[in-house]
Amino acid sequence: MSEVPPELDSLHSISDPLERRLRFTAILTQALGSDGAGLVLVGGQALQFYTAGAYATADIDLVCPAREEAAALLAKWGFTREGRHWRQQALELLVEIPGLVLAGDPSRVTEVQVGDLTLRVIGPEDLIADRLRAAVHWHSDEDRFWASSLITTNRDTLDWDYLRRQAEKDGTAHLLAELEAQSSA
Q1: What is the mean pLDDT of the chain?
Q2: Rounded Cα gap, residues 120 and 144, in angstroms
Q3: Predicted confidence (pLDDT) per residue in 25-71, tens digit
Q4: What three-state secondary structure class fits 72?
Q5: CB of 79 within 8 A of CB of 87?
Q6: CB-side exposure of 12: number of CA atoms within 13 Å?
Q7: Is 159 helix (H, G, I), strand (E, B) or coil?
Q8: What does each C-alpha distance from 151 to 82, 134, 154 come to in angstroms?
């Protein structure tokens, strides 16, 4: 029998899917310990966060060095394993933990308050760098669009020196320069 904490049960009253997923991630972070065992929200859910909901996704992608502990909690809370995902049908939550290590600079992670809880989201520069890599190396027009959207939305708060260094290293500097010029036009 699953042991669903009251905090999870309260998610039923949150109608906005982004808010529900962010609150869930904060609950999981808290349950994993004081630092959330290094848990960081990445992927489409992070993109949805930074674009204020303009991007839509159905799953929650997490990086968590304590993947086994997180998986044990998900099972305890009534999530069922379906391939690489964990599903909680009643709460309409779909969780994947694709990595143990953050592909980016951990010091650039954004801490987000959700009520009385905190969650960590990959930094916007590292998320942009990821989308730029996909756009250039996989020829993904969708990722190019979302890199552009992230740049436009977060233009004034980005660490451009860091982002340019990452783009040079990743072979995406030409696309970053193009999108930067477009966002300031």
Answers
A1: 94
A2: 24
A3: 999 999 998 677 899 999 999 999 999 889 999 999 999 999 999 99
A4: helix
A5: yes
A6: 7
A7: coil
A8: 35, 15, 5
Strands (DSSP E) along the chain, which ranges?
40-42, 60-63, 80-82, 85-88, 93-99, 110-114, 117-121
* Structure confidence at residue 2 (pLDDT): 57
Residue type, 140: S
Q: Tell me which residue of 106, 127, 130, 124 sits closest to 35, measured CA to CA.
A: 106
Q: How far apart are CA 172 and CA 168, in angstroms?
A: 6
The angle subtended at Cα 51 by Cα 163 and Cα 106, nearest 5°, is 45
Find residue 94's DSSP bridge partners.
87
Residue 58 CB: number of other CB atoms within 10 A?
12
| Rg (alpha carbons) of the chain, rounded to whole number | 17
SS3 49: helix
pTM above 0.90, yes or no: yes
The amino acid present at 40, given as its one-letter code, is: V
Q: Are 136 and 102 in contact (CB under 8 A)?
A: no
Q: Which of 107, 115, 98 is nearest to 45 (CA)?
A: 98
